Amino acid sequence: MKILVINAGSSSLKFQLIDMDNQEVIAKGLVERIGTVDPTTDLTYSWGDRKLKEIQLKKAADHAEAMAFVLDVLQGKDRTDLEVAPDDARGHLKGTGVIRDLKDIGAVGHRVLHGGEKFTASCLIDDACIKAIEENIPLGPLHNPANLMGIRACQKVLPDVPQVAVFDTAFHQTMPPKAYRYAIPTEYYTDLHIRKYGFHGTSHRYIAGRATELLKLPRNSRIIICHLGNGSSLSACVDGKCVDTTMGITPLDGLVMGTRCGTLDPAVVEFICNRRNMTPTEVLTMMNKKSGLLGLTGSSDMRDVTARYDAGEPEATLAIEMWSYVLKKYIGSFAAAMGGVDAIIFTAGIGENHVRAREWAVEGLEFMGIKVDHEKNAAARGEAKISADDSKVQVWVIPTNEELAIALDTLELSTKK
Ligand code: ADP
């Protein structure tokens, strides 16, 4: 069966078509500038070893129009409404087809940001599911409405195809109250559902599953998963189930990230509001979009920051020191929370690719039995064990695959009798 995985943002739509017989990505792409004031909508698309970059399409007024584009492209249907396109696509999109007709799409899986306390697992989309996603809009005010637009768009253009919602928060719902509650008056939890939810759950769950398959772990194994990308979070898992995570009611909490500040004293918000005549929303936007590595150095990209660290720039040096220090403190605190740790796993853009960042993360943790083998670490490609033979704790790199995890859930739920 072929499954279409959709990740809808407020003005964008990412898609991947996966053949579940061999788990191969048949085609993938990104539609941008949907329903914005820009004159065109942009499409980037790749299939097999071919790629079309930033084709400008006639304006898509909404996600349903963007989905109609996507379905035409997947079918290789002629479209003459391209505004600007690479030479081989000018005037038409012939040759992009990877399916004969829409019946080839067996199911659609949607990434949904916030499932609140309602969703502990993925669910087949029906009216009740949509209502519950709507009820969680206050918790995910930017993402959930966009995710709903993606769902409604697919319902419109693929009315007979089963759809599944996969939540970024669901994996973390196994956390105990002592980990997820904040020590503020109980009414804020009971009335407003203020608590830690955690994010990147699809990635953490996929990695926890792969770790169970790959690592020979003892019963009640304790692992720490380090999802280090532009957004970053850790999870502490006992027996594959999440017992703690670094992100909170929103993805702002925890580690120093590309553009997010991570943990700080919440009193900073009022302080800045008063001194700079800013609203709390403006301060939070600054903390989400202009902070972290970007705020400290002017670049959110770990490769740039590392190059400047190597050149001895003081801002980059401090940023790398802070990034590593905060990460190391969380690794230590999660090990303490679980009464030890059997394995540490690195994943996502930085975790999978940045050799030195993995060493910075655990440097000085030999006292906890954590020892990385420099050569194995430098040589790691794909799934690889990078701990020294005498390390008590196994250290691994495991590439994440959120789209595949979404597709696997979609396959399971859409074919369940
Ligand atoms: P997102 O959260 O946007 O999905 P990614 O998981 O793609 O982020 O991670 C992006 C981060 O990964 C960036 O900071 C980037 O610098 C870093 N990164 C990607 N490739 C490499 C590489 N080869 N070496 C070092 N860092 C890398």
Brief descriptors of the model:
alpha+beta; 15 strands; Nucleotidyltransferase, domain 5; single chain; 9-stranded mixed sheet; binds adenosine-5'-diphosphate; 2 domains; 6-stranded mixed sheet; globular; 417 residues; 15 helices
Supply the CATH superfamily name of the largest domain.
Answer: ATPase, nucleotide binding domain
Give the CATH level 1 class of the largest domain.
Answer: Alpha Beta
Largest sheet: 9 strands, mixed
Count of alpha and pi helical runs: 15
Q: What is the rounded distance between the termini?
A: 16 Å
Molecules bound to protein: adenosine-5'-diphosphate
Report the sheet-strand fraction.
15-25%
Shape: globular
Briefly note the CATH topology name of the largest domain: Nucleotidyltransferase, domain 5
Query: How is the largest sheet built, in terms of strand order?
Result: 6-5-4-3-2-1-7-9-8
- Order of helix and strand elements from N to C terminus: EEEEEHEEEHHEHHHEEEHHHHHEHHHEEH
What is the CATH architecture term of the largest domain? 2-Layer Sandwich
* Mean pLDDT over the full residue set: 94
Number of strands: 15
Return Rg in Å: 22 Å
Helix content: 25-40%
| Domains, number | 2
What do these coordinates show?
The protein has 417 residues and is α+β, with helices and mostly antiparallel strands. It has two domains: 2-167, Nucleotidyltransferase, domain 5, CATH 3.30.420; 217-397, 2-Layer Sandwich (Nucleotidyltransferase, domain 5), CATH 3.30.420.40. It contains 15 helices and 15 strands. A nine-stranded mixed sheet has the order 6-5-4-3-2-1-7-9-8, with helices on both faces. A six-stranded mixed sheet has the order 12-11-10-13-15-14, with helices on both faces. A hairpin with a 4-residue loop joins strand 2 and strand 3. Helix 1 crosses helix 3, helix 7 (267-276) crosses helix 8 (280-289) and helix 10 packs across helix 11. The chain is globular and about 60 Å long. The model has no long low-confidence stretch (mean pLDDT 94). Bound molecules: adenosine-5'-diphosphate (ADP). Residues 229-231, 258, 301-303, 348-350, 353-354 line the site of adenosine-5'-diphosphate (ADP).
